[in-house]
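Friendly challenge for the regulars: who can give me the structure tokens for this chain first? No prize, just bragging rights.
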Amino acid sequence: MEKTNLQTDKEINDITVDKQTFKDGSICGYDSLHTLLSANLKPHIFQEVSRLLLGLNCGKPLELIALPASVKAIFCEHDFDLQAFSFRAEKELLRAPHVVRVGLIQNSIALPTTAHFLDQKRAIYQKLKLMIDAAGASGVNILCLQEAWMMPFAFCTREKSWCEFAEPVDGESTRFLQELAQKYNMVIVSPILERDVNHGDTIWNTAVIIGNHGNIIGKHRKNHIPRVGDFNESTYYMEGNTGHPVFETAYGKIAVNICYGRHHPLNWLAFGLNGAEIVFNPSATVGELSEPMWPIEARNAAIANSYFVGSINRVGTEVFPNPFTSGDGKPQHADFGHFYGSSHFSAPDASCTPSLSRHRDGLLISDMDLNLCRQLKDKWGFRMTARYELYADLLARYLKPDYEPQVISDPLLHKKSS
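First reply, four minutes later:
Bragging rights claimed.
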């Protein structure tokens, strides 16, 4: 590489080092963009950059939450990322604060994909129990796990043997979490691969909502199924049939927009119209596919729909026994790519937390004053200024076979010159 006037030998060497350290899933050796900027910018510059990137909550940076020393010790011992922040709302005269402590867990698989399926499940349970216990000890009220947390994300392989991980809504993983939900008085959102035994063993991508008493409140099935190149999840399951349910829990009204659904603004809108205060987006997505979109879509949804969003992505690179292709002209390979973690919370006032690590397991905790949702509805008036009747009319016409786009052409555009 030819040196420019602005590149020193040290800078060129740093670029080489950065490319090497990126292979472990970090960003140039740092856990996240936030930690990279913090370590390399002067404090006053970092403060201003952080304001622009993360926004301000009620005019102030997010405050840190103090967690028990025992929880910190567990995460330090296992090299897990642990972060905790507080979203506040303005004080109201007629309503008391409605503060809920919410947690997100991102994790890698616990054993190689070549291990016996039963051993893989047991190992994931063991890892997750440690992290859920930490969430419980930290006073988390609502906890959400990542998409298909109870198995490798094997849908890229198109091999049907992975369907063995599918289970009924009241199956093994749900029973495992029910005990923990009851123990910690915690609502748990559990995204699983569901086997619907009452409908011919149909497979679904499903989130089970477990109440704080260990009861099953309900389920939601993934609305949008990706078909990107050869990565086609409809090899395993099709679009869900549960609509856009909002679950009223002991702590607030929650909904689940599973993975690919975050690319569809109307999907986000529907949960908001049904009254959600927190929408979780449990995901499994890799860097080359979606990382530039990751900090944007959920945050925009939180702003546009006046609710909180919890974005969860699994972490690590999962290598499978048999190579597969991706429909992109590249040679066959045995992994889907690096799941970049980076789980975070977004608030309706456009503020958001820093992301969890790009390459380590982690727990992100946030206190949320749900009063902020209505305060932002009152401030911006999006519900009152929206033109739902116009959108409904357009969609109704668009669905008809004889639909014609509303395009008005310049009459001079196709006029022949004399």
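The first helix runs from residue 9 to 21. The radius of gyration is 23 Å. Your move, everyone else.
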